[in-house]
UniProtKB/TrEMBL annotation:
Organism phylogeny: Bacteria, Pseudomonadati, Pseudomonadota, Alphaproteobacteria, Rhodobacterales
Membrane-spanning ranges: 7-27, 47-69, 140-160, 172-193
Entries under InterPro entries matching the protein: DedA_domain, VTT_dom
Protein known as: DedA family protein
Native species: Paracoccus nototheniae
Domain VTT: 30-160
Length: 199
């Protein structure tokens, strides 16, 4: 899987980084904790530009967050709850996830948008309460971009710095990433089945 992801990113370049980060924010098939370090590794060996990787990762992340912001601004909370209760399993989102994001936003206000970009489990949905409460678009995009920039830069740096280790332990990374993606897929299937049984 290491070879597959790095080959795909190398072939698609910065566009591939942006696309995967957008997908990770809408429907997380591959977490950003895998995407950006791999992209950083490719930047370290000269395949990609470090600056382009960070910009693309941030842009994809902001685009995904803005989609959820728009959804939050267009629907009411009860309607969104009903939608997630019925169809959220396909997006690996539960009502509990929505409640966590709403609670996070209530506690931290606008800074939740900034901080939430760096918190797994909150990152995907923190944009919804921002849209629901009528947070203005420009401040939302600014906070989101800053938080996403810090997060993607940190992950890219980790891959860049660990270039030598990536090369040494590639034999171990392949099975580890395979297991991780298998666990993600298994969790997705489990949530689908569990949701169906609950209904």
């Amino acid at each position: 899987m290491f070879d597959l992801i790095t080959a795909w990113l190398a072939a698609m370049g910065s566009f591939g980084v942006a696309a995967l980060m957008l997908l990770e924010n809408v429907f997380p098939p591959i977490p950003s904790e895998l995407i950006m370090p791999f992209a950083g590794y490719l930047a370290a060996n000269g395949t990609l530009s470090f600056a382009a990787v960070v910009i693309a990762g941030t842009a994809g992340s902001v685009a995904g967050a803005f989609l959820w912001y728009q959804i939050g601004s267009l629907v009411t909370e009860p309607r969104l709850r009903r939608f997630i209760a019925r169809h959220g399993r396909w997006l690996t989102i539960s009502v509990a996830d929505l409640e966590r994001a709403l609670s996070w936003f209530d506690r931290h206000g606008r800074t939740a948008v900034f901080l939430g970009r760096m918190v797994p489990g909150v990152r995907t949905l923190i944009s919804i309460p921002a849209g629901m409460t009528g947070m203005r678009t420009l401040p939302f995009l600014l906070y989101t971009a800053l938080g996403s920039l810090i997060w993607t830069t940190a992950l890219t740096v980790s891959g860049y710095v660990l270039k030598a280790q990536f090369a040494r332990v590639e034999v171990l990374i392949n099975p580890v990433t395979n297991i991780l993606l298998l666990l993600v897929a298994s969790l997705y299937v489990w949530r689908l089945l569990n949701s169906r049984q609950s209904r």
